[in-house]
Automatic annotation (TrEMBL):
Belongs to the PhzF family. InterPro entries: Phenazine_PhzF-like (IPR003719). One of its GO terms (cellular component) is cytoplasm. The active site is at residue 46. The keyword Isomerase applies. This is PhzF family phenazine biosynthesis protein. GO terms for molecular function: isomerase activity. Keywords: Isomerase. Pfam families: PhzC-PhzF.
């Protein structure tokens, strides 16, 4: 079996920046364990698989360790592949997912994702979180992920990480955030239980970040920066039940998998 594969750098307009995702278009679904093996072999934070059904696409995302229910950068990368290689006239892509219907629109080189809002609820600070980040946070919230708030951008850069402690937490991942020096807010994202010590740019994390910063900054539109080594910039809008996030993408690789 030959499966097409693309590797796309998402949330950036430069190669070797943003967050790389593998994208595999399928004519029909293959076995789940094969998709998991491909994701593990790719060894990227996410590999996306999609199948066209009528005018929409069914999509699934896999980390090297397992399937996840929502992924921003691999969805952006999938829309990029569809609009660049498979249907060059398409401007709006609809994805059916385990988290519901997701829509991506294309305007020039900018892709805008509409994702469900996931506002966190304030919670106590687990001891493992303090040990895992090496610093006591200002406050902590919980949705799918822990949202951990610090005072300054420098606090986010200076974390002393212990992934073994973060693996003990019951959430999927850990978002850390603070007000930005030159943007509205900055963040980092860690998901060691999913095989991702630090994710370069995390669209799904902004489903929780944006409603938080809406309440703090009393505004609906944001420019956000993820402070990973590769870095990435997102333009976000809070629409109540949904969060819109926009970014660019560039193609790194096009080929086939032989399985």
């Amino acid at each position: 079996m030959r499966i097409p594969i693309y590797q796309i750098d998402a949330f950036t307009n430069e190669l070797f920046k943003g967050n790389p995702a593998a994208v595999c278009p399928l004519n029909e679904w293959i076995k789940e364990d094969l998709m998991q093996k491909i994701a593990e072999e790719n060894n990227l934070s996410e590999t996306a698989f999609f199948v066209k059904k009528d005018d929409e696409y069914e999509i699934r995302w896999f980390t090297p360790k397992g399937e996840i229910d929502l992924c921003g950068h691999a969805t952006l990368a999938s829309a990029y592949v569809i609009c660049t290689y498979l249907d060059k006239n398409l401007k709006n892509v609809k994805f059916n997912t385990k988290s519901g219907l997701l829509e991506v629109s294309k305007d020039g080189g900018l892709f805008t994702l509409s994702f469900p809002s996931r506002e966190g609820e304030k919670c106590d600070t687990p001891e493992e979180l303090i040990k895992g980040l090496g610093k006591v946070p200002k406050e902590v919230y919980k949705s799918r992920d822990y949202l951990v708030v610090f005072d300054t951008e420098q606090d986010i850069l200076d974390l002393e990480l212990n992934m073994d402690e973060l693996k003990k937490l019951d959430g999927f991942g850990v978002i850390v955030t603070a007000k930005g020096n030159e943007v509205d807010f900055v963040s980092r994202f860690f998901a060691p239980k999913a095989g991702i010590d630090e994710d370069p740019v995390t669209g799904s994390a902004h489903c929780t970040l944006v409603p938080y910063w809406k309440n703090i900054l009393n505004k609906n539109e944001f420019t956000a920066l993820q402070l990973s080594e590769r870095g990435g910039k997102l333009y976000c809008t809070d629409l109540g039940e949904t969060v819109k996030m926009s970014g660019e993408a560039v193609s790194y690789l096009e080929g086939y998998i032989n399985v």
